[in-house]
Amino acid sequence: MSLDGSGPTMPSLGLSPLSPVASRADLVAEAIRAAVLAGRVRPGDTLVERRLAAELGVSKTPVREALIMLAASGLVVLTPTRGTSVRLLDADDLRKIQEVRLLLEPWAVAATTRLGDEDAITRARAALTRSAANLDTVDHGELSVANRDFHRALYAGCGNEFVVGSLDGVRDLAALAAVSLLWPHWPTWREEHVEHERILEAVEAGDAESAQRLTRRHIELSGQRAVEVVASAAQPAAPFDSRR
């Protein structure tokens, strides 16, 4: 029984108080994630703890913890020989990311629509407004973050935290694919913006069926575009023909 008689006393787990480093690691992880998804750090680039710590003005401990967190999400890769590097996505990675999204995201957007989550709609509209503001300046970093925020706003209102957690797990990888593979070779952000507008219009109208169908088609198109970029990059260059 607890001291106030309200119930059984929880036994001590032998834990020590958390230091400020724990919350600082989250901030460091978010700063590194933002740099990667803005394209300032490229896939395959090595992330050096000492340099990151100096740039962020922290010790190496929160940087090391942040990199472990990012490795768990798949955004970076830890190897004994190379240290930590930004993940290089291949065609198989893209296929797996798309499979998870196609299985869960259209359903989640439809569920958000049926629930009429006004906060989700407001956040999605704000992300879309930010995206529109960067279409002409072609700021890939801002477009990437706005794109990511738009999708999360609409699937996070589905009412199922397990679905949200699964989609969060591939969210950064999908954004990495766009900013590192797709957009540098195939500038589709305007087409994607129009697709987002149509999805949000369906959600705002309470049309769950259309929202689900449009979301599925949007993910399919994004996946096809990224796979085509990877496939074309793997093709050897055509031989030079002097007669041309």
Walk me through this protein's architecture:
- The chain is mainly alpha-helical and 244 residues long.
- It is built from nine helices and two strands, in the order αααββαααααα.
- The chain has a two-stranded antiparallel sheet.
- A hairpin with a 3-residue loop joins strand 1 and strand 2 (83-86).
- Helix 4 (91-115) runs antiparallel to helix 9, helix 6 (140-155) packs antiparallel against helix 7 and helix 6 runs parallel beside helix 8.
- It is globular and about 50 Å long.
- The protein starts with 20 loop residues before the first helix and ends in a 10-residue tail after the last helix.
Short account of what is shown:
66% of the residues lie in helices and 3% in strands.
Secondary-structure-derived class: mainly alpha
Low-confidence stretches: 236-244
The ordered string of helix (H) and strand (E) elements is HHHEEHHHHHH
| Biggest sheet overview | 2 strands, antiparallel
Strand content: under 5%
- What spatial order of strands do you see in the largest sheet? 1-2
Radius of gyration: 21 Å
Counting DSSP E segments of at least 2 residues, the number of strands comes to 2
Q: What is the general shape?
A: globular
How far apart the termini lie comes to 89 Å
Helix content: 55-70%
- H/I helix tally: 9
Please render the helix and strand layout as text.
Layout: H1 21-37, H2 49-56, H3 60-73, E1 76-79, E2 83-86, H4 91-115, H5 118-133, H6 140-155, H7 161-182, H8 189-204, H9 208-234
Antiparallel strand pairs: 1-2
Helix pairs in contact: 1-3, 2-3, 4-7, 4-9, 5-6, 5-8, 6-7, 6-8, 7-9, 8-9
